[in-house]
Write a structure and sequence with these properties.
Blueprint (H helix, E strand, L loop, with lengths): L1 E3 L2 E2 L12 H11 L1 E9 L17 H25 L5 E7 L7 H9 L6 E4 L3 E2 L2 E2 L4 H11 L3 H19 L3 E2 L16 H4 L1 H17 L2 E5 L1 H4 L9 H9 L3 E5 L2 E2 L8 H10 L4 E9 L5 E9 H7 L4
Parallel strand pairs: 1-3, 2-11, 3-4, 4-5, 5-8, 8-9, 9-10
Antiparallel strand pairs: 6-7, 12-13
């Protein structure tokens, strides 16, 4: 059974993605997905957190729209979950935005909503500056953190650890996203610096210790990287620790659903991975849903996937 645990739509991620949420669901069904994790970005709380495309026509209006948009997303997700229940298993989640420790209580509050099944623990910033928006902004983050890739990598992984300890997310998003805009995105974390690798190993141990999963995120491939997130050295270390992988396309519209999935599966198989993990909502007698961890073999995954 093919699936993704990480997806977005243009309806609730305007300027950053395309297509309505319902269009994404219908395309996922046609692609052969049996489980679809909906994970629109959570609202942010500070004007300084807005991206350049959110500043016009009014930064204040853009910021004020984020919480109502999140509520509208949850309502639409529940409608689609019910409407298409016979065709696809929809999980409702969101992508956490850990920009500073103060984001932790908000993420926990959003995750407590009855309809929310899970959230993705993600880091898109270092020292409060985006690290994957564009190369120029990455350089600002690097300068703020000390002027080198090694310094900004270390800061990223230190802040990632804060997020992991505070939130213990089941799904850890694009673990090594920090490499995307760096001088050498293909370099192993070990080569960036000993301090970087020590932090990577420390964070992986934290994830394994509380039972989290890393996503194998194929969006890295469509962005020109040679390997998905996480890269090979990190993935190998995680597997040595007994870590488990889930699988994500991190799609931002219908055109990116299942993009590079065949390459992602081949990559994991080359590491010796034999199964992927997802979640299943099970409704009990009182009408409440509980989540069950479910393993999926590669043969099962490929059997339903209609798009390579």
């Amino acid at each position: 059974m093919a699936f993704t645990m990480h997806s977005h739509s243009g309806e609730f991620c305007p300027g950053h993605a395309k297509d309505t949420l319902e269009a994404v669901v219908l395309h996922a069904i046609s692609t052969g997905y049996r489980t679809l994790g909906l994970t629109e970005h959570m609202p942010r709380t500070e004007l300084s957190d807005l991206y350049p495309d959110e500043l016009l026509p009014s930064p204040a209006a853009s910021l004020a729209s984020l919480f109502p948009r999140h509520e509208a997303y949850l309502a639409e997700a529940q409608r689609l979950q019910s409407l298409y229940a016979s065709q696809i298993h929809i999980l409702i989640g969101f992508e956490g935005e850990w920009i500073r420790p103060g984001c932790g209580p908000l993420i926990q509050r959003l995750a407590a909503a009855p309809c929310v099944d899970y959230f993705i623990g993600s880091i898109h910033h270092a020292a409060g500056v985006p690290i994957d928006y564009d190369a120029a902004t990455y350089r600002v983050a690097r300068d703020v953190c000390g002027g080198s890739d090694e310094a900004v990598f270390e800061r990223y992984y230190d802040e990632q650890l804060e997020m992991l300890v505070a939130l213990r997310p089941k799904v850890v998003g694009h673990f090594d996203l920090i490499r995307l805009m760096s001088d050498d995105p293909g370099a192993e974390a070990k080569a960036v610096g000993n301090g970087v690798w020590e932090r990577v190993v420390r964070n992986l141990a934290e994830v394994v210790g509380y039972g989290g999963w890393l996503e194998c995120n194929t969006s890295a491939l469509r962005k020109g990287l040679a390997e998905p997130y996480p890269g090979r050295a990190i993935a190998e270390e995680f597997l040595k620790m007994g870590g488990k992988f889930t699988f994500s396309d991190d799609s931002h519209g219908t055109a990116q659903v299942a993009t590079n999935y065949a390459r992602g599966l081949d990559y994991l198989e080359s590491l010796g991975v034999t199964e992927l993990w997802t979640l299943e909502r099970v409704v009990v007698d009182d009408g409440k849903a509980t989540l069950v961890e479910k393993s999926v073999t590669f043969d099962e995954f490929r059997r339903t996937l209609k798009t390579p």
